[in-house]
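Quick one:
INPUT:
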């Protein structure tokens, strides 16, 4: 039964909040929180972060004239309440479903989403761009960035703040401090000081002091400025941000509507330098099960609102690839004290929470800092350790310069364990692992593996442990494995060698990664049409098994490559190698099946792979087309 929301029912857009009183805004926040909980209970998604910013969301849209005033949310999973208030309430229960609302902010979705966000620490840089554009055009709208939920551990945020005061005089950054432990206890006195230092009276006095100081010698001007900043820093704790050029206000209780509205009104009027408002919130606020959970219900599946009990699969399937990776790494680490593991703020998502429980002194969570993670791993490798840099494919993109410069050029044996390879379902394009095959395979000396099931993943881990003279990587998808039997301790692959899984004659299907199961299904369907197919598991995108690949080209009329990656990856490497060997000169028919050259919207993974043509039916269609066979019947074709 949906919650009762009489005041929220009257809010069609933020404009409807502008004349509300503080008590009404508090009521609106309570109803918005209830609506968010009810919606996510039906769709699953990110819950805790959004619950923590309900009051802040209401206050921001009440004080600022959105969408004229620009409001940018860092890591858009905080923005579910924002979506409800900005005309998308009628679609909020389509969140993360095929054809429904994105789980992150998205420019194409609403004018109230001026900038898409799903990777952390982009908001201040983007907001600074909006502010500079506004200044260049002579406009007077306000620009606000809301950053938090761990994003302040990323260097990009500080790069932007370091540049802010040189770029614009009007920018507001809201630091949503919900788990960083950088704030002292927040209470009435703190809120009082925040209002005081952001208010017009203090600003007037401060401006008068600055005018007087301008008559002093430059050395004394600078001393006066620092004295005023440090005096405020002693009360508020914001000296770091002051040194970066921001006017610091806070910390304030992010659930105190009266304090929020008053401080934001004051901050909106400050136009002589960028402002940082430090807001302390509680992740999962207002929903008992979330408040009491260790992860504050950061990400949830569908759940019962009353009990908080999350839905469980009807029947447990095979272990997920992430779990298999962690278990295999632990096995090897038991015997090799040089093995260490690195994650960038995703210990549970990458399975390294399991590794960390067993080897806490050999586990490093560096925060949302992928660039640092990669170079840190390079330093470990340079001094003889065996680092496993474990990062989602989509996030490894952020550390690519370091992969090239600090790892590959120096030929250091960093092992990249790449989780979430391929499509990721409800998280959509921003989190899809589409590009790592291409960008890693382009690097001289890099070994790139794509295990086809969990047993092969165990062998890929063993292979990476054994490779000690160059960098290596292995990629694996989100979700469950196939149920393959994993040996007690897997043996390494022979570097650059694939395997023939099924022998045939008409067409060869060469799979890289976990589409192998679909390739085998496609072979069955082709056999039913009278066409015999060979199915091969490449195992390596680099180095390629050229002996196997050239055999496939000699013995078959057509070759189809299959991969869970973008154009420019495994298929491109195979085509390039075939051209170099002259294998395309004899009329060989080659087709490369990749992810489509678009950013695919979120949906169920099976639907996404079907759209991409990377399921069995898609492989069959491609094979029949390559062979020039009518899709309706292939009987009589050579078998």
């Amino acid at each position: 039964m949906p919650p009762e929301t009489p005041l929220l029912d009257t809010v069609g857009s933020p404009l409807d909040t502008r004349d509300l009183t503080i008590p009404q805004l508090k009521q609106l926040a309570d109803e918005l929180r209830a609506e968010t909980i009810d919606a996510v209970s039906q769709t699953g998604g990110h819950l805790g972060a959004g619950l923590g910013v309900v009051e802040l969301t209401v206050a921001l849209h009440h004080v600022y004239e959105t969408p004229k005033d620009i409001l940018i949310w860092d890591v858009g999973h905080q923005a579910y309440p924002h979506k409800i208030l900005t005309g998308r309430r009628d679609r909020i229960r389509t969140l993360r479903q095929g054809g429904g609302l994105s789980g992150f902010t998205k420019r194409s979705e609403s004018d109230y989403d001026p900038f898409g966000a799903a990777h952390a620490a982009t908001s201040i840089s983007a907001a600074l761009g909006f502010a500079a554009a506004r200044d260049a055009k002579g406009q007077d709208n306000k620009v606000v960035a809301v950053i938090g939920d761990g994003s302040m551990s990323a260097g990009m945020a500080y790069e932007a703040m370091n540049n802010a005061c040189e770029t614009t005089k009007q920018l507001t950054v809201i630091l949503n401090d919900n788990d960083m432990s950088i704030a002292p206890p927040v209470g009435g006195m703190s809120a009082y000081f925040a209002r005081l230092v952001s208010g017009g009276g203090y600003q007037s006095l401060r401006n008068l002091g600055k005018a007087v100081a301008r008559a002093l010698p430059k050395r004394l001007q600078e001393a006066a400025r620092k004295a005023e900043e440090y005096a405020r820093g002693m009360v508020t704790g914001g000296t770091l941000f002051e040194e970066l050029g921001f006017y610091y206000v806070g910390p304030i209780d992010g659930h105190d509507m009266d304090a929020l509205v008053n401080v934001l009104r004051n901050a909106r009027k400050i136009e002589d330098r960028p402002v940082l408002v430090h807001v302390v919130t509680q992740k999962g606020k207002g929903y008992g099960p979330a408040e009491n959970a260790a992860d504050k219900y950061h990400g949830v599946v569908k759940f019962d609102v009353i009990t908080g009990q999350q839905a469980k699969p009807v029947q447990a399937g095979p272990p997920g690839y992430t779990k298999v990776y962690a278990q295999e790494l632990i096995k090897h680490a038991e015997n090799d004290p040089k093995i260490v593991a690195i994650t960038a703020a995703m210990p549970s998502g990458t399975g390294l929470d399991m590794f960390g429980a067993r080897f806490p002194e050999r586990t490093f969570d560096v925060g949302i800092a992928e660039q640092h993670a990669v170079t840190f791993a390079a330093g470990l490798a340079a001094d003889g350790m065996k680092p496993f840099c474990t990062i989602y494919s989509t996030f490894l993109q952020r550390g690519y310069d370091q992969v090239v410069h600090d790892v590959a050029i120096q030929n250091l044996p960093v092992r990249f364990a790449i989780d979430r390879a391929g499509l990721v379902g409800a998280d959509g394009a921003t989190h899809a692992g589409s590009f790592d095959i291409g960008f890693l395979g382009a690097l001289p000396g890099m070994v790139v593996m794509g295990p086809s099931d969990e047993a092969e993943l165990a062998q890929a881990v063993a292979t990476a442990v054994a490779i000690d003279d160059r960098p290596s990587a292995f990629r694996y998808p989100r979700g469950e494995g196939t149920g393959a039997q994993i040996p007690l301790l897997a043996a390494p692959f022979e570097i650059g060698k694939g395997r023939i899984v099924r022998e045939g004659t008409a067409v060869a299907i060469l799979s890289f990664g976990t589409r192998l199961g679909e390739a085998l299904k496609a072979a069955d369907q082709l056999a039913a049409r009278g066409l015999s197919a060979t199915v091969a598991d490449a195992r390596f995108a680099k180095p390629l098994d050229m002996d196997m690949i050239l055999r496939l080209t000699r013995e078959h009329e057509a070759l189809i490559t299959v991969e869970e990656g973008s154009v420019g990856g495994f298929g491109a490497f195979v085509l390039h190698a075939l051209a170099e060997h002259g294998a395309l000169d004899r009329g060989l028919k080659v087709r490369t099946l990749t992810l489509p050259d678009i950013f695919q919207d979120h949906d169920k993974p099976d639907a996404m792979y079907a759209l991409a043509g990377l399921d069995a039916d898609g492989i069959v269609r491609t094979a029949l087309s390559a062979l020039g066979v009518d899709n309706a019947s292939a009987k009589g074709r050579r078998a």
